[in-house]
Prior knowledge:
By secondary structure, the chain is mainly α. The protein has helices spanning 2-10, 15-24, 32-45, 54-62, 64-70, 93-120, 127-154, 163-196, 201-204, 207-233, 250-254, 262-296, 301-329, 338-363, 365-383, and strands at 79-82, 160-162, 236-237, 242-243, 257-258. 32% of the residues are buried.
Amino acid sequence: MQYLSQELQGLAPHLPLCAADSLRQESFFCPPQLAAYWKRHHRLRGTRKDRDKPCTFISFLVSPDAASAAGQNYSMVSEFILVGFSTFPQHLLPAFFLLFLLMYLFTLLGNLIIMATVWSERGLHTPMYLFLCALSTSEILFTVAVTPRMLVDMLSSHRSITFVACASQMFFSFTFGFTHSFLLMIMGYDRYVAICHPLRYNVLMSTRTCARLVSWTWAGGSVMGMMVTLIVFHLTFCGSNVIHHFFCHAFSLLKLSCGKETSSVTMGVILVCVTALMGCLFLIILSYVFIVAAILRIPSAEGRHKTFSTCVSHLTVVIVHYGFASIIYLKPKGPHSMDSNTLMATTYTVFTPFLSPIIFSLRNKELKNAIKKSFQRKFSPLSS
């Protein structure tokens, strides 16, 4: 064995390659030096077992866990390391932390103001603004599920997250993300009914119907979140536990999984997510096709402008929501650095929720006037 150890020192540069290959391949490949070493080893020991798989033996010499992984007996990963912003220059992290913290606080404050205004103003107790309240709730919960952890890791040297915490974060982020998309679809349907079938609006969008639609969106988001989380965490994770993201992102985790079914699971997750999101986008586009057709039939320009103004805020949020998502997930393959991918991911997780309350507050005159009236009612006694 001493002879083997001395010879292995000369082959050390080849061992990581071979061990990594033995973890990921069904047919093993080793450099010629390791294959020759394997033959000499068996000549010394007088055994012929597994002579066609030298990497399995070599990976055992490097790490017993690697050999067990090559034999499909994986050791479970108990925690993950979130790389996130750790690759950025250290002097930039405080600036990023302050920027994202202010955006996070503004997102919470803006959505809370919208919710408080809608509930306090009886004139806003209509389906459109009740859906807006549900949308603000989903945005608050989505940012709470992702952003605080990102902010803590930016100023921390210990960026590990437990297996259970990672699964929980993925579940909640997918649940509230899909709920957000479903609510945007329902809001598009609400605008379609209001413009194309105004006489039947109170019947088609009654209070019970609105409550039922909101319940279905939350239930659908929960089902999608649970489905994707169970699919991803049904896999076995071995080897590296480093997630190249600032939260437990599904596709980053799939790259760390082991086994033959990884590729099929990845395609399944992509199919589920794309089908749900593109289905919502298709129904929103279809709603606006009918809306635009109805608006064009209005004779006066003032009437067309007034009718379309009720859809501007929702349409803008839809464009921002799907625009940033397409930038991240549909970007062309290329030599993108880890830092650029991290910054691009923040546009969807931080910047989009930040813009949403601004768009609804500025582009919706009725809501903007209600917010002004609410602030004047609260602060006018103090000024007087």
